[in-house]
Amino acid sequence: MPVVKALTGNESAAHGAALARPDLIAAYPITPQSSVVENLAQMLADGKLSCEMVEVESEHSAMSVIQGAALAGARTFTATSAQGLALMYEPYFRMSTLRLPMVMAVAGREMTSPETIWGGQQDTVSLREAGWIQFYVEDNQEILDTVIQGYKVAEHQGVLLPVNVCYDGFFLSHLTEGVEIPDQEQVDSFLPQYRPQHVILDPQRPMAVDPMTPGNLLMKYRRNHLEAMQTALRVIDEIDADFYRVFGRRYGGTIEEYRLEGADAVLVTIGSMTGAAREVVDLLRDQGKKVGLVKVRVLRPFPLKRIVRALRSAKAIGVVDRSVSFGWNSGALFQEVLAALGSQGMVMPAVSFIGGLGGADISNDHMLKALTTVLEVSANQAAEQETVWLD
């Protein structure tokens, strides 16, 4: 039977990984991710987990070990953060372009410098063009559930791509919440054993892996990769619906829409900040204000069509980022949303809000400021707005 326990976000990620029955885990500790692997190691020592665990000397080695195991047909798991993610960039990029499905949890952290170990999303947002599927989750229950969903998405025959489950360092990784841990038999019925058909290292069936590739063939690989990413948009929505039928919980698939009926001002959020935004939307709705919320759950592939549908009736929007786009005076998600709307010829006033960098909080007061600003913009229909820093 399912049980409810008080778990940190890192413990939730570890339980989700264990329930997926990985064949091999390889990881290197880094704050604030370390306790994910510590918990898995304890499960293994206690006989509650049956798999191979490889203790490596760096994150680059961790992803390289995972890569070899995945080529041999194993279901694999690892976890990292920030500078560790940067160190594994070479095999990280290769993991997706070799079309090797797996799940990696990332306890999001700011990138140095200035020196910091605190929470942020700059590490993962900066790698959004590396070909991985990127989930961003709101709470600890969603961490556990998305790790399980992630394997089913990654291993889908129309997708075959690695998945990041990204959650805010410290705000979730070390926060304790009540989390329902599913029954193993339920998970087994939802997530069958991984049986790769597209690639496997077998001495009886020799094959070349990643030989020198001419440009015309590389073009084909990239096109197929992009098509798989677009297929993943549908698959993610379908698997979230399947998950609801088995476990009674759902997260909206690629995005979650909240109180959008008749909303003039809509806030777009990503990650754990969504809880504060949801409370402020309820507060303003009780005051008769026409506000709503869109939570972006999947940043890659970007859910263009669903974002456009969700925002089509808004008079103004605000996008709250926990990262920056160094090429623009705004947040990264803000630029993604503008690109989606612009591709469909939709033009509306939009405000970029940036907050929560380096472990700073994004509070209810910050969200109230953001939504109040967007309401004023929707009333005045001002075309251009300066970036607002929630500090």
How do you describe this structure in short?
The protein is α/β, with parallel strands linked by helices and 391 residues long. The protein has helices at residues 9-19, 34-45, 59-71, 82-87, 89-97, 122-125, 140-154, 184-190, 215-247, 274-286, 304-311, 332-343, 364-380, and strands spanning 3-8, 24-27, 52-55, 76-80, 103-108, 133-136, 163-168, 176-181, 255-258, 265-269, 291-296, 298-300, 316-321, 350-355, 388-390. The strands form three sheets. It has a seven-stranded mixed beta sheet, sandwiched between helices.
Topology overview:
Layout: E1 3-8, H1 9-19, E2 24-27, H2 34-45, E3 52-55, H3 59-71, E4 76-80, H4 82-87, H5 89-97, E5 103-108, H6 122-125, E6 133-136, H7 140-154, E7 163-168, E8 176-181, H8 184-190, H9 215-247, E9 255-258, E10 265-269, H10 274-286, E11 291-296, E12 298-300, H11 304-311, E13 316-321, H12 332-343, E14 350-355, H13 364-380, E15 388-390
Parallel strand pairs: 2-3, 2-4, 4-5, 5-7, 6-7, 10-11, 10-13, 13-14, 14-15
Antiparallel strand pairs: 1-8, 6-12, 9-11
Structure notes:
Helix 1 (9-19) packs across helix 2 (34-45), helix 1 (9-19) packs parallel to helix 7 and helix 3 (59-71) packs parallel to helix 5. The chain has 391 residues and is α/β, with parallel strands linked by helices. It is built from 13 helices and 15 strands. The termini are far apart. It has 2 domains: 3-247, Thiamin diphosphate (ThDP)-binding fold, Pyr/PP domains (Rossmann fold, 3-Layer(aba) Sandwich); 256-390, Rossmann fold, CATH 3.40.50. 51% of the residues are buried. The protein has helices at residues 9-19, 34-45, 59-71, 82-87, 89-97, 122-125, 140-154, 184-190, 215-247, 274-286, 304-311, 332-343, 364-380, and strands at residues 3-8, 24-27, 52-55, 76-80, 103-108, 133-136, 163-168, 176-181, 255-258, 265-269, 291-296, 298-300, 316-321, 350-355, 388-390.
